[in-house]
Amino acid sequence: MDSPKKSSGSMFSLAVAMGIIFISTIPVVRHTVGMAMDLLLGPLLADPVNLPFYVIILILSALTGLYSSLLQKYTIDYERLQEVQEEMKEFQKEYRDAQLSKDERRIKKLESKRDKMMKEQLEVSQEQFKPMAYILLVSIPIFLWLIYKMPLQQGAIFFPYFGRMAIWNGTIWIVPAWILWYMICSICISQVIRKSMNIGGI
Description:
Largest sheet: 2 strands, antiparallel
Radius of gyration: 23 Å
Number of helices: 7
Structural class: mainly alpha
Strand order of the largest sheet: 1-2
Shape: elongated
Strand content: 5-15%
């Protein structure tokens, strides 16, 4: 009884997440959310705090990394996920051996087991969608605020191999410098947080 509920809950979370992403592409929504978030985050750019914009991006990426890691830790059963993965590896090895040995009886037995294994793998994979909507509810308003404030920023970031890049209109290939900086900060900090909190993954 729990499996259909878990599956529908994961699919609902995914649908909500896609809805949030779609709504955030509407210009008036982006501007309104950016203005609202400026009431909360704007003081970081003003006196007496007056932080450089690249430092603010670092701080916000750390906050979103911590928030998303905590959500994943308490909404995804990583132990079950790893168990299912190990079971699937063992099954694939056993099935391959049966095929090589042309043991038809063993192959038939394993094929009857395969559907159950695939179903379990699908269920634990869908669990990873559960926290997505909650993560986006925090991450997207922050991202929209960064977009809202970005045209007013005059700072620069130094990248290895690429040197000094203007934070607003600098690009590396086709990626804006500030987005690349956000991604680097977010990925690195998230990995440190996940490691320190012993959060598993695929």
